[in-house]
Amino acid sequence: MNFESGVDPSRRNAVSGATGLIQFMPSTARELGTTTDALARMSRAEQLPYVERYLQMHGVKPGANLEQLYMSVLSGSASNTGALWSRGSVQYTQNAGLDTDGNGVITSTEATAKVTSAWQRDRAAVYQTLNVNVGGNADPAAVAAIQQAARSGAMDAFGTVGLEGGGY
């Protein structure tokens, strides 16, 4: 979520119209029974059930790792490996920054390496953003939503990638 939106539920991509914590495309929002405008008005806690449903719809299983989560968000499938997009496609243009070797092909390895690096760098700040409100106290609605998603298995990957110690 931090990599896609900075954990900002109202963040909108000016080019694609993707909105929210995991940058829901307008068509994806419709599949989930909402709109990107409605998602943009939601809090983090209100958006988490949509994130959970999206991940379940796209094959993310309990215990998934960060790479599987990100492949689901980026490409729509937790099991995508190898080449994702080539220069000339809309998806390549929208994600050209992930082509780290500049060969005109974005691979799952390139994409997940970038998100893993960002996670290692930013995870303490993400943990604080997800769990603490401006006043410095745990946000009960956010905590309840995170706990529910963890119980359902959709957010098990947070435990496997470093949000340890949160009491969830």
Question: Helices and strands in order, then pairings?
Answer:
Blueprint: H1 2-5, H2 26-31, H3 36-41, H4 44-57, H5 66-75, E1 83-86, H6 90-94, E2 105-107, H7 108-131, H8 140-152, H9 156-161
Helix pairs in contact: 4-8, 5-7
Summarize the structure.
The protein has 168 residues and is mainly α.
How would you describe the overall organization of this protein?
The chain has one domain (2-80, 118-161). The longest helix is centred in the C-terminal third of the chain and has 24 residues, at 108-131. The protein has a two-stranded antiparallel sheet with strand order 1-2. The protein has 168 residues and is mainly alpha-helical. The chain has 9 helices and 2 strands; from the N terminus they run αααααβαβααα. The protein has helices at 2-5, 26-31, 36-41, 44-57, 66-75, 90-94, 108-131, 140-152, 156-161; strands spanning 83-86, 105-107.
Distance between the termini: 18 Å
What portion of the residues fall into strands of 2 or more residues? under 5%
Strand order of the largest sheet: 1-2
Largest sheet: 2 strands, antiparallel
How many distinct beta strands?
2
Principal-axes shape call: globular
* Rg, nearest Å: 16 Å
Helix content: 40-55%
Q: Which parts are unreliable, with pLDDT below 50 for 5 consecutive residues or more?
A: 132-136, 152-168
Indicate the mean pLDDT.
Answer: 77
What structural class do the secondary elements suggest?
mainly alpha
Helix count, per DSSP?
9
The arrangement of helices and strands along the chain is HHHHHEHEHHH
Q: State the domain count.
A: 1
InterPro entries: Lysozyme-like_dom_sf (IPR023346)
Protein name: Transglycosylase SLT domain-containing protein
Organism: Deinococcus arenicola
